Amino acid sequence: MLTVALPKGRIAQETLEIFETIFGTAFVFDDRKLILETPDFRFLLVRNQDVATYVYHQAADIGVVGLDTLEEQGLDVIRLLDLCRGRCKVAIGMRKGETLDLSKPEIKVATKMVNITKRYFAERAVAADVIKLYGSIELAPLVGLADMIVDIVETGATMKQNGLEVVETIMESSTYLIANKNSFFEKKSEVLDIYEKINASLKKD
Ligand code: PRP
Fold it and tell me: Would you state the pLDDT for residue 204?
């Protein structure tokens, strides 16, 4: 029996569809239930930012989460497989027409991805003032809270509609199948079996 942590929303749906294709049965959560038990799997519905936490603490054996979130959290889990879904990037956005000048003193950056942002500027020996926000990041440069933002860009529509544009891509992201390190050894055959089945089903796409 493997416990699988899935992030609520589209990724959970897409992952369950992969399982349905592989096993030929429907995997559907009842209304508001957060656990779905089947003979071989126990699926958990968690917040996207909590998937790696469940897996790291072995409350789940495997999980599905975006690479951007993994990089931001830095938890020690095994990255088994790129599911090639949920493609997006983490990028620096500025007001249209502005250019990124890392030599400018006192750079203020608003983001919900504080660790990725701090790492990016530290690697370039730039002392940026990183301001943590929890959402609506695109607002920050419009009202003078920050000079730029570091945020997720999927279609680019949110930045565009708020008069911002990408000036630099920090990383490309997609969803990954991850595993707890102990589970990987304790339940190796089960983990590798589902890994291989998912990998094979992705190749058919
Ligand atoms: C992300 C991100 C942007 C938006 C980008 O937020 O913070 O606001 O999506 O998508 P786009 O390029 O397709 O416009 P999300 O919807 O994940 O909400 P959150 O702020 O609650 O995390």
Answer: 78
CA of residue 181 to ligand 1 center, whole Å? 31
Low-confidence ranges of the chain (pLDDT < 50): none
The CA 135 to ligand 1 mean position distance, Å, reads 8
The CATH architecture annotation of domain 2-86+174-204 reads: 3-Layer(aba) Sandwich (3.40)
Taking the CA of residue 161 as reference, the ligand 1 atom at the shortest distance is 14
Say how many Å lie between the CA of residue 128 and the centre of ligand 1.
23
- Tokens 């199948």 correspond to 177
Q: Are 130 and 147 in contact (CB under 8 A)?
A: no
* Phi, psi for 109 (deg, rounded to 5): -125, 125
- Quick one: DSSP state of residue 44? E
Q: Which of 55, 62, 70 is nearest to 15 (CA)?
A: 62
How is domain 88-172 classified at the architecture level of CATH?
A: 3-Layer(aba) Sandwich (3.40)
* Of the candidates 47, 29, 50, the residue with the CA atom closest to the CA atom of residue 38: 29
**pTM for the predicted model, two decimal places:** 0.94
The closest-lying atom of ligand 1 relative to the alpha carbon of residue 151 is 7
| Identity of the amino acid at 156 | G
